[in-house]
Design brief:
2 copies of one chain form a homodimer. With 240 residues, chain A is of the alpha+beta class. Chain A is 39% helix and 24% strand. A 4-stranded antiparallel β-sheet of chain A has the order 1-8-3-6, with no helix packed on it. Chain A has a 4-stranded antiparallel β-sheet with strand order 2-7-4-5. In chain A, strands 9-10-12-11 form a 4-stranded antiparallel β-sheet. Chains A and B meet through helix 4 of A and helix 4 of B.
DNA sequence: CGATCGATTGAGCCCTCTCAAGAGAGGTGG
DNA sequence: CCACCTCTCTTGAGAGGGCTCAATCGATCG
Protein backbone atom coordinates (compact mmCIF):
# COMPACT_ATOMS: atom_id res chain seq x y z
CA UNK A 1 0.00 0.00 0.00
CA UNK A 2 1.77 3.06 -1.31
CA UNK A 3 1.07 6.66 -0.44
CA UNK A 4 -0.70 8.60 -3.18
CA UNK A 5 0.26 12.13 -4.02
CA UNK A 6 -2.95 14.20 -3.94
CA UNK A 7 -1.70 16.61 -6.59
CA UNK A 8 -1.49 13.76 -9.08
CA UNK A 9 -5.16 12.90 -8.86
CA UNK A 10 -6.72 16.26 -7.99
CA UNK A 11 -7.78 16.88 -11.58
CA UNK A 12 -9.80 13.66 -11.91
CA UNK A 13 -13.55 14.08 -12.50
CA UNK A 14 -14.40 12.18 -9.33
CA UNK A 15 -12.57 14.78 -7.26
CA UNK A 16 -13.83 17.91 -9.02
CA UNK A 17 -14.57 20.69 -6.56
CA UNK A 18 -12.55 19.19 -3.73
CA UNK A 19 -10.15 21.21 -1.62
CA UNK A 20 -6.66 19.86 -1.05
CA UNK A 21 -7.63 19.05 2.48
CA UNK A 22 -10.82 17.20 1.56
CA UNK A 23 -8.92 15.27 -1.07
CA UNK A 24 -6.39 14.28 1.56
CA UNK A 25 -9.21 13.00 3.76
CA UNK A 26 -10.55 10.92 0.93
CA UNK A 27 -7.23 9.48 -0.16
CA UNK A 28 -6.38 8.53 3.38
CA UNK A 29 -9.12 5.92 3.21
CA UNK A 30 -7.95 4.41 -0.05
CA UNK A 31 -5.40 1.73 -0.69
CA UNK A 32 -3.30 1.59 -3.80
CA UNK A 33 -3.23 -1.88 -5.35
CA UNK A 34 -1.43 -3.38 -8.31
CA UNK A 35 -2.95 -6.01 -10.60
CA UNK A 36 -0.90 -8.06 -13.02
CA UNK A 37 -1.81 -8.29 -16.68
CA UNK A 38 -4.74 -10.66 -17.27
CA UNK A 39 -5.67 -10.88 -13.61
CA UNK A 40 -9.26 -10.39 -12.44
CA UNK A 41 -9.99 -7.34 -10.31
CA UNK A 42 -13.50 -8.50 -9.54
CA UNK A 43 -16.00 -10.94 -10.96
CA UNK A 44 -19.56 -10.47 -12.11
CA UNK A 45 -21.96 -11.38 -9.32
CA UNK A 46 -19.38 -11.06 -6.54
CA UNK A 47 -20.49 -8.77 -3.77
CA UNK A 48 -19.40 -5.23 -4.44
CA UNK A 49 -16.94 -4.81 -1.59
CA UNK A 50 -14.75 -2.15 -3.19
CA UNK A 51 -14.87 0.73 -5.65
CA UNK A 52 -11.94 1.93 -7.69
CA UNK A 53 -10.16 4.65 -9.57
CA UNK A 54 -7.76 3.44 -12.23
CA UNK A 55 -4.37 5.12 -11.94
CA UNK A 56 -2.32 3.14 -14.44
CA UNK A 57 -2.95 0.52 -17.08
CA UNK A 58 -6.21 -0.60 -18.69
CA UNK A 59 -9.18 -2.58 -17.47
CA UNK A 60 -11.82 -4.45 -19.45
CA UNK A 61 -15.35 -4.72 -18.06
CA UNK A 62 -17.35 -7.61 -19.52
CA UNK A 63 -20.56 -9.49 -18.94
CA UNK A 64 -21.26 -13.18 -19.54
CA UNK A 65 -24.61 -14.50 -20.75
CA UNK A 66 -26.24 -17.60 -19.26
CA UNK A 67 -25.11 -19.52 -22.33
CA UNK A 68 -21.51 -18.45 -21.81
CA UNK A 69 -21.05 -15.77 -24.44
CA UNK A 70 -19.09 -12.74 -23.37
CA UNK A 71 -19.81 -9.10 -24.19
CA UNK A 72 -17.34 -6.32 -23.53
CA UNK A 73 -19.08 -3.50 -21.69
CA UNK A 74 -16.22 -1.01 -21.89
CA UNK A 75 -12.54 -0.38 -21.48
CA UNK A 76 -11.50 1.71 -18.49
CA UNK A 77 -8.73 4.25 -19.01
CA UNK A 78 -6.52 5.82 -16.34
CA UNK A 79 -8.35 8.43 -14.30
CA UNK A 80 -11.72 6.73 -14.63
CA UNK A 81 -13.85 5.40 -11.81
CA UNK A 82 -15.09 1.81 -11.91
CA UNK A 83 -16.76 -0.78 -9.74
CA UNK A 84 -19.18 1.78 -8.31
CA UNK A 85 -21.99 -0.77 -8.02
CA UNK A 86 -22.64 0.29 -4.45
CA UNK A 87 -23.23 3.90 -5.49
CA UNK A 88 -26.00 2.88 -7.87
CA UNK A 89 -27.66 0.61 -5.37
CA UNK A 90 -26.32 -2.74 -6.52
CA UNK A 91 -25.11 -5.15 -3.88
CA UNK A 92 -23.15 -7.14 -6.49
CA UNK A 93 -20.87 -6.25 -9.38
CA UNK A 94 -22.81 -6.34 -12.65
CA UNK A 95 -19.72 -7.17 -14.71
CA UNK A 96 -16.28 -8.70 -14.48
CA UNK A 97 -13.25 -6.38 -14.44
CA UNK A 98 -9.98 -7.69 -15.83
CA UNK A 99 -6.64 -5.91 -16.03
CA UNK A 100 -5.58 -6.12 -19.68
CA UNK A 101 -2.23 -4.60 -18.80
CA UNK A 102 -0.30 -4.33 -15.57
CA UNK A 103 -2.51 -1.86 -13.72
CA UNK A 104 -2.60 0.22 -10.56
CA UNK A 105 -5.82 1.24 -8.86
CA UNK A 106 -6.97 3.24 -5.89
CA UNK A 107 -9.42 1.13 -3.90
CA UNK A 108 -11.98 2.18 -1.29
CA UNK A 109 -14.06 -0.23 0.76
CA UNK A 110 -17.64 0.06 -0.50
CA UNK A 111 -18.79 0.34 3.10
CA UNK A 112 -17.22 3.80 3.26
CA UNK A 113 -19.37 5.10 0.40
CA UNK A 114 -22.42 6.22 2.40
CA UNK A 115 -20.29 8.07 4.90
CA UNK A 116 -18.09 9.66 2.24
CA UNK A 117 -21.11 10.80 0.24
CA UNK A 118 -22.68 12.30 3.34
CA UNK A 119 -19.48 14.16 4.11
CA UNK A 120 -18.69 15.16 0.52
CA UNK A 121 -21.87 15.71 -1.49
CA UNK A 122 -19.76 16.53 -4.53
CA UNK A 123 -18.92 12.84 -4.66
CA UNK A 124 -22.53 12.07 -5.54
CA UNK A 125 -22.90 14.77 -8.16
CA UNK A 126 -19.54 13.92 -9.74
CA UNK A 127 -20.47 10.25 -9.90
CA UNK A 128 -23.84 11.20 -11.33
CA UNK A 129 -22.10 12.97 -14.19
CA UNK A 130 -19.85 9.99 -14.79
CA UNK A 131 -22.69 7.47 -14.83
CA UNK A 132 -24.69 9.85 -16.98
CA UNK A 133 -21.95 9.99 -19.61
CA UNK A 134 -21.70 6.26 -19.55
CA UNK A 135 -25.42 5.98 -20.13
CA UNK A 136 -25.09 8.26 -23.14
CA UNK A 137 -22.25 6.18 -24.53
CA UNK A 138 -24.21 3.00 -24.07
CA UNK A 139 -27.20 4.53 -25.84
CA UNK A 140 -24.92 5.47 -28.70
CA UNK A 141 -23.87 1.87 -28.86
CA UNK A 142 -27.49 0.70 -28.98
CA UNK A 143 -28.23 3.13 -31.78
CA UNK A 144 -25.22 1.92 -33.74
CA UNK A 145 -26.09 -1.72 -33.29
CA UNK A 146 -29.64 -0.97 -34.40
CA UNK A 147 -28.83 0.98 -37.51
CA UNK A 148 -25.36 0.21 -38.79
CA UNK A 149 -23.65 -2.68 -40.48
CA UNK A 150 -20.84 -4.55 -38.85
CA UNK A 151 -18.10 -2.81 -40.82
CA UNK A 152 -19.24 0.64 -39.68
CA UNK A 153 -19.59 -0.49 -36.09
CA UNK A 154 -16.07 -1.88 -36.05
CA UNK A 155 -14.75 1.34 -37.56
CA UNK A 156 -16.50 3.39 -34.88
CA UNK A 157 -15.20 1.11 -32.15
CA UNK A 158 -11.60 1.44 -33.32
CA UNK A 159 -11.85 5.21 -33.66
CA UNK A 160 -13.27 5.46 -30.17
CA UNK A 161 -10.53 3.27 -28.72
CA UNK A 162 -7.89 5.29 -30.52
CA UNK A 163 -9.30 8.56 -29.25
CA UNK A 164 -9.54 7.26 -25.71
CA UNK A 165 -6.31 5.27 -25.53
CA UNK A 166 -4.37 6.07 -28.66
CA UNK A 167 -0.62 6.52 -28.76
CA UNK A 168 1.05 8.28 -31.67
CA UNK A 169 3.50 6.03 -33.48
CA UNK A 170 5.47 6.38 -36.65
CA UNK A 171 2.75 5.29 -39.06
CA UNK A 172 -0.36 6.52 -37.23
CA UNK A 173 -2.12 5.94 -33.94
CA UNK A 174 -1.76 2.71 -32.04
CA UNK A 175 -4.28 1.42 -29.55
CA UNK A 176 -2.31 1.47 -26.35
CA UNK A 177 -3.16 -1.91 -24.87
CA UNK A 178 -3.41 -5.51 -26.07
CA UNK A 179 -6.71 -6.09 -27.85
CA UNK A 180 -7.67 -9.15 -29.86
CA UNK A 181 -10.07 -9.59 -32.78
CA UNK A 182 -12.26 -11.47 -30.35
CA UNK A 183 -12.38 -8.46 -28.02
CA UNK A 184 -13.48 -6.21 -30.87
CA UNK A 185 -16.11 -8.74 -31.86
CA UNK A 186 -17.47 -8.71 -28.32
CA UNK A 187 -17.60 -4.91 -28.37
CA UNK A 188 -19.49 -4.71 -31.64
CA UNK A 189 -21.81 -7.69 -31.45
CA UNK A 190 -20.25 -9.81 -34.15
CA UNK A 191 -17.85 -12.75 -34.47
CA UNK A 192 -14.09 -12.79 -34.43
CA UNK A 193 -14.16 -14.24 -37.95
CA UNK A 194 -16.02 -11.27 -39.35
CA UNK A 195 -13.75 -8.84 -37.52
CA UNK A 196 -10.69 -10.65 -38.86
CA UNK A 197 -12.00 -10.46 -42.42
CA UNK A 198 -12.80 -6.76 -42.07
CA UNK A 199 -9.42 -5.87 -40.60
CA UNK A 200 -7.63 -7.93 -43.23
CA UNK A 201 -9.52 -5.96 -45.86
CA UNK A 202 -8.58 -2.65 -44.31
CA UNK A 203 -4.97 -3.69 -43.93
CA UNK A 204 -4.73 -4.52 -47.63
CA UNK A 205 -6.16 -1.07 -48.35
CA UNK A 206 -3.54 0.53 -46.11
CA UNK A 207 -6.08 1.89 -43.61
CA UNK A 208 -4.64 0.02 -40.67
CA UNK A 209 -1.76 -2.15 -39.64
CA UNK A 210 -2.48 -5.21 -37.57
CA UNK A 211 -0.64 -7.66 -35.41
CA UNK A 212 -1.21 -10.03 -32.58
CA UNK A 213 -3.44 -8.13 -30.15
CA UNK A 214 -2.21 -4.95 -31.76
CA UNK A 215 -3.81 -2.40 -34.10
CA UNK A 216 -2.42 0.78 -35.61
CA UNK A 217 -4.73 3.20 -37.40
CA UNK A 218 -2.77 4.55 -40.34
CA UNK A 219 -5.54 6.65 -41.87
CA UNK A 220 -7.98 7.63 -39.14
CA UNK A 221 -9.66 10.09 -41.44
CA UNK A 222 -10.50 7.54 -44.11
CA UNK A 223 -11.69 5.24 -41.38
CA UNK A 224 -14.11 7.95 -40.20
CA UNK A 225 -15.41 8.30 -43.73
CA UNK A 226 -16.02 4.58 -43.78
CA UNK A 227 -17.68 4.72 -40.36
CA UNK A 228 -20.14 7.36 -41.49
CA UNK A 229 -20.93 5.67 -44.80
CA UNK A 230 -24.64 5.77 -45.51
CA UNK A 231 -26.49 2.55 -46.29
CA UNK A 232 -26.06 1.68 -49.94
CA UNK A 233 -23.77 4.60 -50.68
CA UNK A 234 -20.80 3.84 -52.87
CA UNK A 235 -17.33 3.88 -51.42
CA UNK A 236 -14.60 5.13 -53.79
CA UNK A 237 -12.63 2.15 -55.11
CA UNK A 238 -9.01 1.49 -54.21
CA UNK A 239 -6.16 3.02 -56.12
CA UNK A 240 -4.42 0.41 -58.26
CA UNK B 1 -51.14 24.57 -13.03
CA UNK B 2 -52.87 22.27 -10.59
CA UNK B 3 -51.91 21.72 -6.98
CA UNK B 4 -50.28 18.31 -6.36
CA UNK B 5 -51.10 16.27 -3.30
CA UNK B 6 -47.76 15.39 -1.66
CA UNK B 7 -49.11 12.13 -0.28
CA UNK B 8 -49.74 10.89 -3.82
CA UNK B 9 -46.12 11.19 -4.87
CA UNK B 10 -44.28 10.65 -1.59
CA UNK B 11 -43.51 7.02 -2.43
CA UNK B 12 -41.75 7.77 -5.72
CA UNK B 13 -38.08 6.83 -5.89
CA UNK B 14 -37.02 10.42 -6.57
CA UNK B 15 -38.47 11.50 -3.25
CA UNK B 16 -37.19 8.63 -1.11
CA UNK B 17 -36.05 9.81 2.29
CA UNK B 18 -37.88 13.13 2.14
CA UNK B 19 -39.93 14.49 5.01
CA UNK B 20 -43.45 15.74 4.28
CA UNK B 21 -42.20 19.26 4.73
CA UNK B 22 -39.24 18.89 2.38
CA UNK B 23 -41.48 17.28 -0.19
CA UNK B 24 -43.81 20.25 0.08
CA UNK B 25 -40.89 22.58 -0.56
CA UNK B 26 -39.95 20.63 -3.63
CA UNK B 27 -43.44 20.38 -5.05
CA UNK B 28 -44.03 24.08 -4.57
CA UNK B 29 -41.49 24.73 -7.28
CA UNK B 30 -43.05 22.32 -9.77
CA UNK B 31 -45.81 22.91 -12.25
CA UNK B 32 -48.19 20.20 -13.32
CA UNK B 33 -48.63 20.06 -17.09
CA UNK B 34 -50.81 17.98 -19.39
CA UNK B 35 -49.65 16.74 -22.80
CA UNK B 36 -52.06 15.41 -25.40
CA UNK B 37 -51.52 12.03 -27.02
CA UNK B 38 -48.82 12.18 -29.70
CA UNK B 39 -47.55 15.60 -28.66
CA UNK B 40 -43.85 16.26 -28.13
CA UNK B 41 -42.72 17.06 -24.59
CA UNK B 42 -39.24 18.00 -25.72
CA UNK B 43 -37.06 17.42 -28.74
CA UNK B 44 -33.60 15.93 -29.05
CA UNK B 45 -30.99 18.72 -29.10
CA UNK B 46 -33.27 21.33 -27.55
CA UNK B 47 -31.75 22.98 -24.51
CA UNK B 48 -32.67 21.11 -21.38
CA UNK B 49 -34.84 23.75 -19.72
CA UNK B 50 -37.00 21.42 -17.63
CA UNK B 51 -36.92 18.07 -15.87
CA UNK B 52 -39.96 15.93 -15.23
CA UNK B 53 -41.73 13.27 -13.24
CA UNK B 54 -44.46 11.42 -15.10
CA UNK B 55 -47.68 11.26 -13.12
CA UNK B 56 -50.08 9.83 -15.69
CA UNK B 57 -49.87 8.33 -19.14
CA UNK B 58 -46.85 7.04 -21.05
CA UNK B 59 -43.91 8.71 -22.72
CA UNK B 60 -41.59 7.40 -25.41
CA UNK B 61 -37.97 8.56 -25.50
CA UNK B 62 -36.32 8.16 -28.89
CA UNK B 63 -33.18 9.18 -30.73
CA UNK B 64 -32.80 9.94 -34.42
CA UNK B 65 -29.67 9.11 -36.42
CA UNK B 66 -28.11 11.55 -38.89
CA UNK B 67 -29.65 9.49 -41.68
CA UNK B 68 -33.12 9.80 -40.19
CA UNK B 69 -33.64 6.40 -38.61
CA UNK B 70 -35.30 6.40 -35.22
CA UNK B 71 -34.41 4.23 -32.23
CA UNK B 72 -36.63 3.95 -29.16
CA UNK B 73 -34.54 4.50 -26.06
CA UNK B 74 -37.23 3.57 -23.55
CA UNK B 75 -40.82 3.95 -22.47
CA UNK B 76 -41.44 6.01 -19.35
CA UNK B 77 -44.08 4.75 -16.92
CA UNK B 78 -45.93 6.79 -14.29
CA UNK B 79 -43.74 7.61 -11.30
CA UNK B 80 -40.53 7.71 -13.30
CA UNK B 81 -38.22 10.67 -13.70
CA UNK B 82 -37.24 11.84 -17.17
CA UNK B 83 -35.55 14.72 -18.93
CA UNK B 84 -32.82 14.92 -16.29
CA UNK B 85 -30.18 15.97 -18.81
CA UNK B 86 -29.13 18.84 -16.57
CA UNK B 87 -28.41 16.50 -13.67
CA UNK B 88 -25.96 14.48 -15.73
CA UNK B 89 -24.22 17.54 -17.09
CA UNK B 90 -25.86 17.79 -20.50
CA UNK B 91 -26.96 21.23 -21.64
CA UNK B 92 -29.30 19.67 -24.26
CA UNK B 93 -31.77 16.82 -24.26
CA UNK B 94 -30.15 13.70 -25.71
CA UNK B 95 -33.47 12.31 -26.95
CA UNK B 96 -36.98 13.30 -27.96
CA UNK B 97 -39.83 12.68 -25.51
CA UNK B 98 -43.30 12.08 -26.92
CA UNK B 99 -46.52 11.44 -25.03
CA UNK B 100 -47.92 8.22 -26.46
CA UNK B 101 -51.08 8.66 -24.43
CA UNK B 102 -52.66 11.69 -22.81
CA UNK B 103 -50.15 12.35 -20.06
CA UNK B 104 -49.63 14.50 -17.00
CA UNK B 105 -46.21 15.50 -15.72
CA UNK B 106 -44.64 17.42 -12.90
CA UNK B 107 -42.17 19.90 -14.35
CA UNK B 108 -39.29 21.75 -12.67
CA UNK B 109 -37.18 24.40 -14.34
CA UNK B 110 -33.73 22.91 -14.88
CA UNK B 111 -32.23 26.05 -13.41
CA UNK B 112 -33.55 25.03 -10.00
CA UNK B 113 -31.61 21.75 -10.03
CA UNK B 114 -28.31 22.97 -8.57
CA UNK B 115 -30.09 24.76 -5.74
CA UNK B 116 -32.41 21.84 -5.05
CA UNK B 117 -29.54 19.35 -4.99
CA UNK B 118 -27.58 21.57 -2.62
CA UNK B 119 -30.58 21.80 -0.30
CA UNK B 120 -31.65 18.15 -0.61
CA UNK B 121 -28.64 15.88 -1.13
CA UNK B 122 -30.98 12.90 -1.29
CA UNK B 123 -32.05 14.19 -4.67
CA UNK B 124 -28.60 13.45 -6.05
CA UNK B 125 -28.31 9.99 -4.53
CA UNK B 126 -31.84 9.05 -5.60
CA UNK B 127 -31.16 10.22 -9.14
CA UNK B 128 -27.88 8.32 -9.09
CA UNK B 129 -29.78 5.13 -8.34
CA UNK B 130 -32.26 5.82 -11.11
CA UNK B 131 -29.61 6.55 -13.71
CA UNK B 132 -27.68 3.54 -12.49
CA UNK B 133 -30.62 1.22 -13.07
CA UNK B 134 -31.12 2.69 -16.47
CA UNK B 135 -27.49 2.02 -17.28
CA UNK B 136 -27.97 -1.60 -16.24
CA UNK B 137 -31.04 -1.94 -18.41
CA UNK B 138 -29.25 -0.45 -21.38
CA UNK B 139 -26.36 -2.85 -20.88
CA UNK B 140 -28.82 -5.70 -20.84
CA UNK B 141 -30.12 -4.46 -24.14
CA UNK B 142 -26.62 -4.36 -25.61
CA UNK B 143 -26.00 -7.90 -24.45
CA UNK B 144 -29.27 -9.07 -25.99
CA UNK B 145 -28.57 -7.36 -29.29
CA UNK B 146 -25.11 -8.90 -29.33
CA UNK B 147 -26.08 -12.46 -28.59
CA UNK B 148 -29.72 -13.13 -29.43
CA UNK B 149 -31.76 -13.54 -32.56
CA UNK B 150 -34.51 -11.14 -33.44
CA UNK B 151 -37.32 -13.42 -32.28
CA UNK B 152 -35.86 -13.70 -28.79
CA UNK B 153 -35.24 -10.00 -28.56
CA UNK B 154 -38.82 -9.22 -29.50
CA UNK B 155 -40.08 -11.72 -26.94
CA UNK B 156 -37.95 -10.11 -24.24
CA UNK B 157 -39.12 -6.65 -25.21
CA UNK B 158 -42.79 -7.62 -25.01
CA UNK B 159 -42.34 -9.36 -21.67
CA UNK B 160 -40.59 -6.30 -20.29
CA UNK B 161 -43.28 -3.97 -21.54
CA UNK B 162 -45.96 -6.21 -20.07
CA UNK B 163 -44.24 -6.34 -16.71
CA UNK B 164 -43.76 -2.61 -16.65
CA UNK B 165 -47.05 -1.47 -18.14
CA UNK B 166 -49.22 -4.54 -18.36
CA UNK B 167 -52.94 -4.54 -17.65
CA UNK B 168 -54.78 -7.76 -16.89
CA UNK B 169 -57.51 -8.45 -19.42
CA UNK B 170 -59.75 -11.41 -20.07
CA UNK B 171 -57.34 -13.40 -22.22
CA UNK B 172 -54.03 -12.37 -20.71
CA UNK B 173 -51.98 -9.22 -20.19
CA UNK B 174 -52.35 -6.24 -22.45
CA UNK B 175 -49.68 -3.61 -22.98
CA UNK B 176 -51.35 -0.55 -21.59
CA UNK B 177 -50.56 2.02 -24.26
CA UNK B 178 -50.64 2.21 -28.05
CA UNK B 179 -47.57 0.55 -29.54
CA UNK B 180 -46.99 -0.23 -33.18
CA UNK B 181 -44.95 -2.92 -34.90
CA UNK B 182 -42.65 -0.12 -35.95
CA UNK B 183 -42.12 0.91 -32.33
CA UNK B 184 -41.17 -2.62 -31.38
CA UNK B 185 -38.81 -2.78 -34.34
CA UNK B 186 -37.12 0.40 -33.14
CA UNK B 187 -36.74 -1.08 -29.66
CA UNK B 188 -35.17 -4.31 -30.84
CA UNK B 189 -33.03 -3.18 -33.74
CA UNK B 190 -34.98 -4.78 -36.55
CA UNK B 191 -37.59 -3.83 -39.18
CA UNK B 192 -41.32 -3.54 -38.83
CA UNK B 193 -41.69 -6.28 -41.44
CA UNK B 194 -39.76 -8.79 -39.40
CA UNK B 195 -41.70 -7.85 -36.26
CA UNK B 196 -44.96 -8.22 -38.13
CA UNK B 197 -44.00 -11.68 -39.38
CA UNK B 198 -42.94 -12.77 -35.90
CA UNK B 199 -46.10 -11.50 -34.22
CA UNK B 200 -48.26 -13.06 -36.93
CA UNK B 201 -46.52 -16.34 -36.27
CA UNK B 202 -47.10 -16.07 -32.53
CA UNK B 203 -50.70 -15.10 -33.03
CA UNK B 204 -51.35 -18.20 -35.12
CA UNK B 205 -49.79 -20.23 -32.33
CA UNK B 206 -52.07 -18.57 -29.79
CA UNK B 207 -49.24 -16.96 -27.84
CA UNK B 208 -50.49 -13.44 -28.37
CA UNK B 209 -53.39 -11.49 -29.73
CA UNK B 210 -52.65 -8.47 -31.89
CA UNK B 211 -54.44 -5.45 -33.21
CA UNK B 212 -53.77 -1.98 -34.42
CA UNK B 213 -51.18 -0.57 -31.98
CA UNK B 214 -52.34 -3.17 -29.51
CA UNK B 215 -50.83 -6.37 -28.14
CA UNK B 216 -52.16 -8.88 -25.62
CA UNK B 217 -49.87 -11.58 -24.23
CA UNK B 218 -52.02 -14.69 -23.88
CA UNK B 219 -49.30 -17.05 -22.75
CA UNK B 220 -46.55 -15.06 -21.06
CA UNK B 221 -44.96 -18.22 -19.79
CA UNK B 222 -44.54 -19.80 -23.21
CA UNK B 223 -43.23 -16.50 -24.45
CA UNK B 224 -40.55 -16.59 -21.74
CA UNK B 225 -39.58 -20.06 -22.83
CA UNK B 226 -39.21 -18.77 -26.35
CA UNK B 227 -37.24 -15.77 -25.11
CA UNK B 228 -34.71 -17.98 -23.33
CA UNK B 229 -34.39 -20.47 -26.17
CA UNK B 230 -30.77 -21.40 -26.69
CA UNK B 231 -29.18 -21.01 -30.11
CA UNK B 232 -30.03 -24.02 -32.24
CA UNK B 233 -32.19 -25.66 -29.62
CA UNK B 234 -35.41 -27.21 -30.85
CA UNK B 235 -38.73 -25.71 -29.93
CA UNK B 236 -41.57 -28.18 -29.43
CA UNK B 237 -43.82 -28.16 -32.51
CA UNK B 238 -47.37 -26.84 -32.52
CA UNK B 239 -50.30 -28.98 -31.59
CA UNK B 240 -52.33 -29.84 -34.69
C1' DC C 1 -67.55 7.33 -46.40
C1' DG C 2 -63.20 8.37 -48.03
C1' DA C 3 -58.48 8.86 -46.74
C1' DT C 4 -54.63 7.92 -44.14
C1' DC C 5 -51.93 5.13 -41.30
C1' DG C 6 -50.75 0.62 -39.62
C1' DA C 7 -50.38 -4.26 -40.58
C1' DT C 8 -49.69 -8.32 -43.55
C1' DT C 9 -47.40 -11.11 -46.73
C1' DG C 10 -44.58 -12.79 -50.80
C1' DA C 11 -40.17 -13.08 -53.42
C1' DG C 12 -35.45 -12.73 -53.72
C1' DC C 13 -31.04 -11.49 -52.18
C1' DC C 14 -27.06 -10.55 -49.37
C1' DC C 15 -24.57 -9.81 -45.26
C1' DT C 16 -23.04 -12.25 -41.72
C1' DC C 17 -22.70 -16.53 -39.20
C1' DT C 18 -21.27 -21.31 -38.85
C1' DC C 19 -18.24 -24.94 -39.74
C1' DA C 20 -13.64 -26.19 -40.85
C1' DA C 21 -8.72 -26.10 -41.41
C1' DG C 22 -4.38 -24.34 -41.06
C1' DA C 23 -0.59 -21.00 -40.31
C1' DG C 24 2.06 -17.86 -37.44
C1' DA C 25 3.61 -15.84 -33.15
C1' DG C 26 4.90 -15.99 -28.40
C1' DG C 27 5.66 -18.06 -24.27
C1' DT C 28 7.51 -21.86 -21.53
C1' DG C 29 9.90 -25.60 -19.76
C1' DG C 30 13.39 -28.89 -20.14
C1' DC D 1 18.55 -22.15 -26.26
C1' DC D 2 15.66 -24.83 -28.68
C1' DA D 3 11.44 -27.50 -29.19
C1' DC D 4 6.96 -27.64 -28.27
C1' DC D 5 2.52 -25.97 -27.26
C1' DT D 6 -0.96 -22.79 -26.93
C1' DC D 7 -3.27 -18.82 -28.32
C1' DT D 8 -4.37 -15.67 -32.00
C1' DC D 9 -5.30 -14.81 -36.48
C1' DT D 10 -6.49 -15.97 -41.30
C1' DT D 11 -9.20 -17.76 -44.95
C1' DG D 12 -12.52 -20.76 -47.60
C1' DA D 13 -17.09 -22.75 -48.40
C1' DG D 14 -21.75 -22.91 -47.63
C1' DA D 15 -26.07 -21.80 -45.42
C1' DG D 16 -29.59 -18.98 -43.58
C1' DG D 17 -31.76 -15.27 -40.94
C1' DG D 18 -33.34 -11.06 -41.71
C1' DC D 19 -33.57 -7.14 -44.92
C1' DT D 20 -35.27 -4.85 -49.11
C1' DC D 21 -38.64 -4.14 -52.40
C1' DA D 22 -43.37 -4.34 -53.53
C1' DA D 23 -48.20 -4.76 -53.28
C1' DT D 24 -52.51 -5.27 -50.79
C1' DC D 25 -55.53 -5.30 -47.03
C1' DG D 26 -57.87 -3.43 -43.03
C1' DA D 27 -59.08 -0.27 -39.61
C1' DT D 28 -59.58 4.10 -37.46
C1' DC D 29 -60.61 8.90 -37.79
C1' DG D 30 -62.19 13.11 -39.53
Amino acid sequence: MAKVDPSLVAHLPLFAGFSTEELGDLLREARSVRFAKNSAIFEEGEDAHTFFVLLHGHVRASKTTPSGEQVVVRYVSPGETFGVAMAIGLPNYPATATAVDDSVVLAWPASTWPRLVAKFPALATNTLQTIGSRLQETHTRVVEMSTQQVEQRVAHALLRLAKQSGRKVEHGVEIDFPISRQDIAQMTGTTLHTVSRILSGWESRGLIEGGRQRIVLREPHNLSVLAEAIQGEDVPPDRP
